[in-house]
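Researcher: Here's a chain I'd like modeled. Treat it as a single chain, no partners, no ligands.
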Amino acid sequence: MKQHAAPRGLDELSEREWTDFALDVGSIFATREWFATWLLHEPGLGPVEVLVSRRGDGSVAGVLALAVERSVPRVLGPLGPWPAAAPSIVCKEEDRGWITEDLVRQVQARRGVDMLRLVVPASQAPQFDAWRGDRGVAISDRSIQYDGRTWDELLSASGRNSRRAFLRRSRRLRESFAVGFRRTERADQLENDVDLLLQLHWKRWGDEVLILTPERRALLQSLAAATFARNRLYLRFLELDGRAAAAQLSFRVGTTEFAFMSAADPELREHQVGIEMLFHTVEASIADGMSALRLLPGDQEYKQRLPSIDHPIQPMLVPMSALGTAVLGGRRVARRIQRSVQRDTGSESPSARE
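Model: Modeled as a single isolated chain. Structure tokens:
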């Protein structure tokens, strides 16, 4: 597999600016290691550029990382095969309007760009009418907001039936197995534990796996190592009789946790070990003082097992040239480009909750 010699397009920001920006925004998608990992391991990427929007005092307010997705028409899209940052423009929500205006104008100022593909909050889609943007189908993007609640309070808020079902399932699991949870806490455990997560994932999906294939093992290992070194990675396992039954890989930035990838042994489907793993992750997150768990885009049913808030996101194609406008008018190519958003937004998510 071809690898790039070094991350490209990331030097617009210093290491300190990347760190400060990530903490300010509270997003794993605002970290340098997120983008650098894709650039080091993904073959076939065209030129990559990181566009930056700054405040009056020079501090970083927003970032948009783009790569060439098509040559004719020339389409720029968000960097990352799955999940690209969603929304594509990483910034604070209260600043999103003016930052979007600034960054789209920056793209317009570049020659040779026919279309810009973005994923934006559905509520922001009308802003793109001024650019004659073409809207794709909105996608669910849920998060669990803790709002100072304890785990018991959050579980109770899910409804009496849901609470009873969880307690009954948890009790039965402990009647059948010796149940334990563990977290990867040492660097010398990390590589083996990431492989264990991947083995569960591949066992579940087999030949249907589309994203985190065996060929992408090195990508996930690199991302895990880079984030672990910064105390951003949280990898947990549910063990039954000492054997891994389910796993959850999350990232933490500030007080927000991002549920990046889960896996569950299909042989234990009847015990719903994936849901047990999710609930443990939420309980541990609350105990550690986190404010929210981002579940990432996708409409999987398990994301509604606990009280959550949906902030739908919407794919957009924005013409940047006369050719881009003509293509959008023709629709056929536009629809083909819009379909490519499924991989970026988790519609082909490697998560499994069973």
